[in-house]
Each structure stands twice: as C-alpha cells, then as structure tokens.
Design a protein that fits this description.
9 helices; single chain; mainly alpha; 238 residues; 0% strand
Length: 238
C-alpha cells in the first residue's frame, strides 16, 4: 500500500481554517501537491483558505486532493462535491510537467553518475536501457492525457460533446506504467556489481522508489477523482 501521503499513521481531514504551515509540517509529502497547485512557500501563519486565495487557487479542489491522498481507501463519491474541474486539470498538467521535465531527467543524471557506463559493464547498460524505456512509456502516457484527454474535457466544459470519445476510453486504458520501474529496481538491487559509488547509487534508488510512490498517488487522483468527475460532466451534456 502506498503510504507516502499518510500523516503519522493517522488520517486527518484538513479544513479551510487549518494553517497551511501545519498541513506541510504534519505531512511533508504534501509539498508536492501544494507546488502543483502553484502555491509558493512563505505564507507565514495563514490558513489554507487564505493561502489559496492569495495564489488564486480553488480551495475546495486543493483540499479534495489533499484529503483524498491522506486516506487509506479509495472512496469516489465523497470527493466530487465542490470540485473545480479546470483547477484539477491544471494540477494534473503541472504534475506531468514535474515528472517529465524535472524528476525523471534528474534521476537519469544521478543514475549515469552512479553507475559505470563503460562498454564492459553490461548491467549498467541494461539499467540505463530499462530506465529510458520506462521514461518513454511515462511520456507517451502523459502526452496522450495532455493532448487527447484534457482537450476532450475542455470541449465538455464548453458544453460540446465529442461523439468519437468518452472518458471511459481513457479509464479502460489507464495503465499504471509501473512494470518497467519494478524490473529496473530489481536489476539494481539484485545484480548491479559492488565497487561503485554505493552512496550515490542508493540515493538514486531511493529517488526511484519515491518517484514510483508519487506516480501511484498521481494515478489515484486521476482514477478516483478526475475520471468520476468527468463521467458526471458527461451525463449533463447530451
């Protein structure tokens, strides 16, 4: 079970009146959520509502995502009321940009530095090959969402229903894209020969585990908040 968004092994439902600083200190992983909503640090003792207002962020949508990621179970119906679909799409787009433009390239640079990429080291070559294949799958998946899914939803928000597509098509083909990453981790853990920079390699492996958890949480938001919200929107537009 993914536990990166759990708060001290308890589930707390945050409210608009809670201090944003408390939210981050109690669960530092929510820094990623805050960043993807375009919220910067330096908000003092302001409440969640005040910080969201300062940054022109829909507070309901922010809290829906935060509280959903803090739960152990996946309840759909509890999270749709008051949701802003445009705000959620912006959050998802910024998450895609984070993975593709920052986190995955950063991991690759650390991976290259940590392993011996000489022609004699076949395991190192295999590690880089698997990582690049994984990044290719993630990029293809997220670019499809950016170009096809979000464009479809933008038409729905304008009251236009495209006849050749539905959010159900996306939901049925929403792969978790984690199989290659699992294989990569196993290669590094079980087969990479000792003698290299173990500290850097272990730090890189830690980043890979963190990335995997972050992507799993991202997929949960899409599966259990975004898709049901779009299904409800489709029902309203014949």
């Amino acid at each position: 079970m993914n536990t990166i968004f759990m708060c001290n092994n308890t589930t707390r439902m945050y409210k608009p009146t809670d201090k944003m600083g408390d939210l981050i200190c109690e669960n530092y992983a929510l820094l990623q959520v805050m960043s993807r909503f375009g919220i910067s640090l330096g908000f003092g003792d302001k409440s969640v509502q005040e910080v969201c207002d300062m940054n022109q962020v829909d507070c309901n949508t922010f809290l829906i995502v935060v509280n959903f990621l803090g739960e152990e179970s996946n309840h759909i119906h509890d999270h749709l009321q008051g949701l802003s679909i445009p705000a959620l799409m912006e959050y998802l787009k910024k998450a895609h940009s984070y993975f593709l433009d920052f986190q995955l390239p950063s991991i690759r640079r650390k991976l290259i530095e940590a392993i011996d990429c000489s022609s004699e080291n076949e395991v190192a070559f295999l590690i880089v090959k698997f990582f690049d294949a994984y990044v290719h799958e993630v990029r293809k998946h997220m670019e499809y969402e950016n170009e096809k899914v979000f464009t479809y939803v933008e038409h729905l928000l304008k009251g236009e229903r495209l006849k050749d597509y539905s959010i159900g098509v996306f939901a049925r083909h929403h792969d978790q894209i984690n199989a290659k990453l699992t294989e990569l981790k196993n290669i590094i853990i079980k087969y990479y020969p000792s003698g290299g920079d173990n500290q850097l390699l272990n730090a890189t492996l830690f980043d890979i585990f963190s990335c995997e958890e972050d992507l799993a949480s991202h997929n949960r938001v899409e599966d259990f908040i975004f898709v049901p919200a779009i299904m409800e929107l489709e029902k309203k537009i014949k």
